Amino acid sequence: MLVAGLALLLGGVALVLVMRSVLLEQVTDAARARAATVAAADPHLIADDDGFAQVIDTGGRVVAATPNVAGADAVDLRPGDTAHVDIVPGEDMLAVAVAAGDRTVVAGQSTDDVGEATAVVTRLLGVGLPVLLAVVAVTTWWAAGRALAPVEAVREEVDAISAAELHRRVPDAGHDEIARLARTMNRMLDRLEHAQTRQREFVSDASHELRSPVASIRQHAEVALAHPGRTTVPDLAATVLAEDLRVQRLVEDLLLLARADEHRLRLASAPVDVDDLVLEEAARLRSGGSGLRIDTTGIAAARVTGDAGALRRVLRNLGDNAARHAAGVVGLSVAARDGAVVVTVEDDGPGIAVEDRDRVLRRFVRLDEARDRDAGGAGLGLAIVDELVRAHGGTVEVGSSSIGGARVVVRLPAG
Fold it and tell me: Which stretches make up the HAMP domain (predicted)?
């Protein structure tokens, strides 16, 4: 309101000054017209009016004048000059001089009307501006209060939201900017609630998975202490080592997924021959002693730009998953088509039901036939595959295999 008041004050002052300037210009024009009329007529026929006129010779003597300035000294002005004079008692005159042959005609008009008009406008502005400012202040306060009421409601609701109450939402009635802001905040709260839910599930599942190997190590250690004759140091060490490796793998998987959640996966960017990596994985599966037939007849040359270590881990997880469920055959294939490199891993096992094909890519998801932790792992393998493939700009799709089991198709942008 201070700025508005200052603006109104400056506007009022400017109005008075401009009006006074315009009125004085009109008075000057009238005096100049009067002088020109007198200069064109007989100087001895000067009529009396609300102004004055003098005809002055070259010697500076008044040779003719209106009755209201009869006997007054000549106004000392050169032709073309303009000045305020007090030749008429009690009145301020604006005088203009024009040439009339060898004489000078000086005519003047009273500026009293200008002063009166300026005084009236000044008084009106002195009364009207404070009233106008008060009306503007009240209107602004009322309008701002109504406009900011939704903001206050949003502020109160946001202030009441805590980590334990992320289900709450701010009111978003209307279609103005504040309502759009409220809807944006609600979408942010949706994301925070979803992230918190995922984090809680992640911590809960991780704790559950870590509890099993820790409990196993403790159980074997307690048995060894209570009954030293029932176990040997090599047997105890083998058990502890196996459980420790299991914990290590789980922790590494959890760290990778945590970095993926924080968008901190640091992947190299270099040309990678995907067919070579698939052949390495096939050799690893054959040397595992599982007795499975590893079919590599569908492998063709293909190259992508990415991280060889991360892609090797993708293939290892897919290979282990297929070998775990296969009855006798695991198929590996690589093809380049439509600007993408397609890697397919399939088995002849029981397959994955349609309703579970999206769910198996989530974390800590094990289907009924994989409930055994020793056989089914922690349920992170395919989740890690999905994160690493998406980090490379690719996609993962789970479907049915032509040989009877599950098929996982990975599509990567061709390098």
Answer: 145-197
> Where in 134-287 does DSSP place strands (E)?
270-273
Say if domain 181-261 classifies as CATH 1.10.260.40: no
CATH of 270-413, one of 3.30.565.10, 3.90.1150.10, 3.30.930.10, 1.10.3210.10: 3.30.565.10
Phi-psi region of 380 (alpha: psi -120 to 50; beta: other; left: phi over 0): alpha
The C-alpha atoms of residue 83 and residue 333 are separated, in whole angstroms, by 106
Angle at which helices 2-40 and 112-160 pack, to 10 degrees?
A: 160
Q: Which residue has the tokens 């089914």?
A: 376
Phi and psi at residue 162, to the nearest 5°? -125, 180
What does the alpha-carbon distance between residue 238 and residue 235 come to, in Å, rounded to a whole number? Answer: 5
Span 330-389, pLDDT tens digits: 999 999 988 999 999 999 999 898 888 888 888 777 665 444 444 445 678 888 899 899
Spell out, as residue ranges, where the chain has pLDDT lower than 70.
1, 42-49, 208, 366-378
The alpha carbon of residue 331 and the mean position of all alpha carbons in its chain are separated, in whole angstroms, by 48
Residues 70-93 pLDDT 10s: 888 888 888 989 999 988 887 888
CA distance readout (Å), 248 to 125, 318, 319, 380: 85, 20, 20, 13
